[in-house]
Amino acid sequence: MNSANDFDLESLVHLEQTFYDDGYKDGFDHGRIHGLIEGRALGREKGFEMWEELGFYEGFAVLWKMICARRVGDSNERIMNHINQLLQLISQFPRVNPSLTSSSADVDIPKLFRQIRSRYKILCSTLGVKPSLRSADGAPSEEDFQEDSNPSTRQPVWKVDEQSRVATGQSLEF
Amino acid sequence: MESPWDDNPSSDTTRDTEWTKISSEFTNAGYREGITAGKEAALQEGFDAGFANVGAPLGRELGILRGFASALLSYIPTLSQPGAIDPNVDLEQMLSSARHIASSLSKVRFTDIAPRDLEAEEHAREHLDAEGIDMEQNPDLEEKRTMEGLEDLLSSMTTSGSPSQAGPKRPTIEDVRSLEEQLQTIAHYVQLDIPNDLN
Q1: Which of A37, A163, B14, B193 could form a disulfide with B120 if both were Cys (CB 3.0 to 4.6 A apart)?
Q2: What stretch or stretches form a coiled coil here (chain B) (predicted)?
Q3: What is the DSSP letter of A5?
Q4: Structure pTM?
């Protein structure tokens, strides 16, 4: 150990790696907590926003279905048809992000959302009711969805958006 | 440059300093990289959990109520022809309550009724204790909160004229429950029974 010849550069490099790895592991554990917290905040908000709108259509359809159920007539049958189609579409909409359930990962979310909105509008016009535009205005726009051009990658339908990811990565201070 | 393994006792302090410097430099570098990687790796998992466990069910519940209110609003005026309903029922008054319920429900925000994220609060507290700083919030959500704050300010200005006063009280989950009951009452008047639980 006394002479410079004994100095083992290899072991020093290895030591540096050990320090780095220890730090990395601790950092990763801490970062994971932050990722879960932030992801959860986004997912809560997004799930609420989407299902608040869908729930509105659902509640509207369900109540009108009850009203129509005690009426008779041809026009009523037509309305019933529209209601059932709308409810059917809503029932296809995932309540869990499809990245977890592979069976629903094929659902084209933006397309389904468009279909539901136009079904709702059709139902309104059949009923002679003015559609509620408030929900359509504040509704998530197309850009909120990341359409996956390559279905084989099986990416989750709602991906935490790149931009906020980058921005928050920078904001972490330690 | 002095080697950290230099046995010369006189350089003990230097050696220790050097040692600490090397170790903390690499540990910190690893920590920084690790925190970014750990965060990236967990974001989607957190998102999915928040979506499925809180956001979607809570949003759906509120949305359904708002949909019921909207359906009642469009149904009640169709009852105006004579004989359509019990003449003792005041349609105008029902219509105005339904309108009130619909508009109150549409003002409810996620933050008004969301359950607390205790784990997030706990972790934010740890940061505050350790470093005296608040945890950073996601910029998208931060922006949304700022917008909501502005909305509150504007509505308090138009209603009371004095923005210095505290804004209107935000609705709570109890308010939503009460609106749900009022909705049920109106529905009963027009012989409808609002389902409590849709699956």
Answers
A1: A37
A2: none
A3: G
A4: 0.78
Both B99 and B175 in one domain: the answer is yes
The rounded distance, in Å, linking the Cα atoms of A32 and B119 is 13
pLDDT 10s digits, B107-145: 999 999 999 999 999 999 888 888 766 677 788 888 888
Helix (H), strand (E) at residue A12 = helix A9-69
Q: Which domain holds residue B42?
A: 16-108+171-199
Among the partner-chain residues A19, A127, A169, the one whose CB lies closest to the CB of B74 is A127
* Statement to judge: residues B35 and B88 lie in one domain: yes
Element at B141 (helix H, strand E):
helix B139-160
**Domain check: are B124 and B138 in the same one?**
yes
8 A C-beta contact, residue B36 and residue A169: yes
- Nearest-CA distance B65 → chain A (Å): 6
Structure tokens at B73: 């609003």
B91 & B176 share domain: yes
How far apart, in whole angstroms, are the C-alpha atoms of residue A134 and residue A120? 13
Kindly state whether residues B48 and B131 are assigned to the same domain. no
Q: Which of A77, A82, A40, A35 lies closest to A61, judged by CA?
A: A82
Question: Any idea what DSSP says for residue A142?
Answer: G
Q: In this complex, is the C-beta atom of A109 within 8 Å of any C-beta atom belonging to chain B? A: no
Model confidence pLDDT, tens digit, residues A86-103: 999 999 998 887 665 555
Closest CA relative to residue B94, chosen from B78, B113, B124, B73: B73
Is A164's Cβ below 8 Å from some Cβ in B? yes
Rounded CA separation B46/A41 (Å): 8
| Interchain proximity B49–A40, CB inside 8 Å | yes
Chain-chain contact of B54 with A44 (C-beta, under 8 angstroms): yes
Is B142 a member of any domain?
yes
* Mean pLDDT across A8-17: 76
With CA atoms as reference, the chain B residue closest to A15 would be B23
Specify whether B94 is located in the same domain as B182: yes
B145 and B57, same structural domain? no
Higher local confidence (pLDDT), B28 or A107: B28
Domain total of chain B:
2
For the ranges A8-12, B87-91, B178-182, the lowest mean pLDDT is seen at: A8-12
